From TrEMBL:
Protein name in UniProt: Protease PrsW
Top-level taxonomy: Bacteria, Bacillati, Bacillota, Bacilli, Bacillales
Gene giving rise to this polypeptide: prsW
Claim: Transmembrane is one of the keywords in the record: yes
Transmembrane segments: 6-21, 33-53, 100-121, 127-150, 162-179, 185-202
Subcellular location: Cell membrane
E.C. numbers: 3.4.-.-
Family the UniProt entry places it in: Belongs to the protease PrsW family.
Function: Involved in the degradation of specific anti-sigma factors.
Example GO biological process: proteolysis
Keywords: Cell membrane, Hydrolase, Membrane, Metalloprotease, Protease, Transmembrane, Transmembrane helix
InterPro entries reported in the protein's UniProt record: Peptidase_PrsW_arch/bac, PrsW
Organism of derivation: Brevibacillus agri
Length: 224
């Protein structure tokens, strides 16, 4: 059981550490990051209950559209809500890259507990693939979410803030939906998912650099 718990939490902790240590401007309080991670974990049960209701009470049991709504829309929406109400309005959210840190923390908290449940049900033999695909994909969707939350937070105009807030929720849902659609509709999904994940990492790291660039500009414009 200890080995299973370790295999479940190690990928999330490793990826979280990477994105946290990339914050070279004004690193976030570790207590805030841990709190966001825990909030993400707490989302798992209510989301699973809602998904169960959608499958049993609403008869959304099969089909690509039903699967995408239950997974991509529900999961990304609730993660976005937690980040918006617990981190976005917090005083510690004081540079654009912070959006990525908090979004990744919430998403990896969710992915870590979800991963533990999957390993308990299916065994350690799937731990490697879970780390490479579902856990890391949750983090990468969060990079897009956090990047645009950071842009929204430090927008000069209300119209810009609204646009970036919309992008911060719609793009992760779209990426998550595409990720799910690959598994659900393509028989030889491995041929497609590998380049898809590589592109996600490439674009995610570009978002990290851009967030740092905006953060540097923001710090240099502050009154001394």
């Amino acid at each position: 059981m200890i080995a299973m718990i370790g295999a479940a939490i190690a990928p999330g902790i490793a990826i979280m550490s990477y994105f946290y240590l990339r914050d070279s401007l004004e690193p976030e309080p570790i207590s805030m990051v841990i709190r966001s991670f825990i909030f993400g974990m707490l989302l798992v049960i209510p989301i699973m209950v809602l998904q169960y209701i959608m499958q049993t009470e609403w008869n959304w049991r099969s089909g690509v559209v039903a699967e995408i709504i239950q997974s991509a829309v529900v999961e990304e929406f609730f993660k976005w809500m937690v980040i918006f109400f617990t981190a976005y309005k917090h005083v510690e959210f004081d540079e654009p890259y912070d959006g990525i840190v908090y979004a990744v923390a919430v998403s990896l908290g969710f992915a870590t507990l979800e991963n533990l449940f999957y390993l308990i049900i299916n065994g350690l033999n799937i731990a490697f693939w879970r780390a490479l695909l579902p856990v890391s994909s949750h983090a990468l969707f969060a990079v897009w979410m956090g990047y645009y939350l950071g842009r929204a937070k430090f927008s000069q105009k209300k119209e810009q803030e609204k646009l970036f807030l919309w992008l911060s929720i719609s793009l992760p849902i779209g990426l998550h939906a595409l990720y799910n659609a690959i598994f659900l509709s393509i028989q030889n999904w491995l041929v497609v998912i590998v380049p898809f994940m590589l592109v996600l990492w490439w674009q995610g790291l570009k978002k990290v650099q851009r967030a740092h660039d905006y953060g540097s500009k923001n710090l240099s414009s502050r009154p001394q």
